[in-house]
Structures are given as C-alpha cells and as structure tokens.
Amino acid sequence: MNGPEHPVTKFLSPLQELAEGRTAPSDWLVWWSSHSEEIEALVSRGWYLRLKPRQVDPDQPNRAALFSQEGACYILNALDVPFEKSDRYHQVWVEEFRLYCEEQKALRKRLKKQYGPQLALLGKTFPGPVSEDADRTARMPGCSCHP
Asked: Could you tell me the pTM of the whole model?
C-alpha cells in the first residue's frame, strides 16, 4: 500500500503524534472516542483492533496509549510513513506497574501480619491444604514482585 492512496491518510497526523509520543494519553482517548467509528469504516478489522485502546483504566491511560501506539506504528510502517517511535508511554507504564507491585507487596505484608496468626493456627488444626493456601495467598500470580 502506498500512503497517499489509502483512505486512512487523513488520520496520519494523529497516528504519527501517537507513535512519536507527542499525544497525551488522555487526549488520545478523547480523540479515539470521537473518531473510532470513522476509523473502523476506513480500515481493515485487523488495523482497527490494533489501534483500538485496550484495557482502558482511568487510573492508567498510559497503558491504553501504549497499546494504541503499537497499532499506530504498525499502520504507519504498512503505509511507509516515516516516524520515530517514542518509549514515553512504555516508560510511564513500567513505573506505574512498579508502584503497583510495591502497593501489592505492602498489602500482602499487612494481610499476612493481620491474618497470619489465624492462618497458622488453622494450619496446625487442619494440616495440608489450609497451610498451602495460606502460603499461596501471600503471592500474586503473574506479578514479578513476589517475595
């Protein structure tokens, strides 16, 4: 595909701004809300789904922008449009995830302190699965910040 021939070329500027990290994540989500139907009508389903913000959390708009940025880069590459990909959204998301892991560690520590004695007593009274469950609840699956 050649850039000027494709109907999505009218949206190249916002896609380049997203790819290069020049768009605030909240601004991207607002832009997407007002243009998503038009984008969906112009591009293939695959391109649309790559561009569509996923896992939109009001507290973590950078994550949604990061997913959409990947789609914008894919589309820009397919159209041979030059851009310099920014790691802005990725860096912020990594920091947000690190803070989340710290919060989870503190929560597990607090819960272990609060409920540890009761669970230990239950583990002595009912050996086996209860003891293992108590240990399992101290960890969060999928989180790289396990003790």
From this structure: 0.71
Name the nearest CA neighbour of 68 among 25, 30, 7: 25
- For residue 82, give the amino acid letter: P
58: how many CB neighbours lie within 10 A of its CB? 8
Q: Where are the alpha helices (DSSP H) in 23-143?
A: 25-42, 45-51, 61-78, 88-125, 129-137
* Residue pair 2/81 in contact by the 8 Å Cβ criterion: no
CA dist list (Å): 73 to 19, 97, 139: 6, 23, 36
Say how far apart CA 30 and CA 117 lie, in whole Å.
49
Instruction: Encode pLDDT of 27-84 as tens digits.
Output: 999 999 999 999 999 999 999 999 999 877 777 788 899 999 999 999 999 999 999 9
3 state SS of 14 = helix
